[in-house]
Amino acid sequence: MKFIGATVEEFVCPGITYMADVMKMSEDLSAVTLVALANGAGDVITALVAGSSAGGVSYNIGSLYGSGFFVCSIVISMTILSLGEHKLQVGPLTVYKDIAFYIVATVITIIFGIIGNIYWWSAAVFLCIYVLLVIATLFNK
Fold it and tell me: Which tens digits make up the pLDDT trace of 49-92?
């Protein structure tokens, strides 16, 4: 764990910061693109490896939703507690937008589970949801 933390601190964080600065991205846009990519890369690799094994799909769904709930509860709570006297200003639309997209993605995942097969358009649906999330984040000022 220390090695992973040191690697992220030494290489990933400065790389993401540099890319966001060069592309003149807002903090919101870099959060839903670059930071999300860096945060989810390990989950995606684990999902690809586990997906071909027996019970791998159930593991993937549980892992991804578990990590999402962990970030929503523990990470955000620790961030707020570490601020001390400083105030964290988050608009209600930001929270509602994130919850709405999480619910929509969950319902679509359940629908695909009921269908029982994954097609090329299944991935396209999730990609469209992600693009809509990025657009909604850009216009949520």
Answer: 666 667 666 777 777 778 777 877 787 778 778 887 777 777 77
pTM exceeding 0.90: no
CA angle 62, 66, 71 (to 5 degrees): 155
Structure tokens at 78: 């620790």
Which pair of tokens denotes residue 43? 């989950």
List, in sequence order, the alpha helices (H) in the chain.
2-7, 13-22, 27-30, 36-50, 56-70, 76-82, 92-115, 120-138
The answer to whether residues 38 and 97 belong to one domain is no
Q: Both tokens of residue 61?
A: 């769904």
CA–CA dist 59, 132 (Å, integer) = 27
Any idea which residue has 């990590």 for tokens? Answer: 67
Domain end residue (candidates: 71, 89, 107): 89
Tell me the two tokens of residue 138: 């850009």
Distance, in Å, from the CA atom of 43 to the CA atom of 45, rounded to the nearest integer, reads: 6
Range of the domain at 114: 90-141
What's residue 128's pLDDT? 93
Q: Which DSSP state fits 71?
A: I
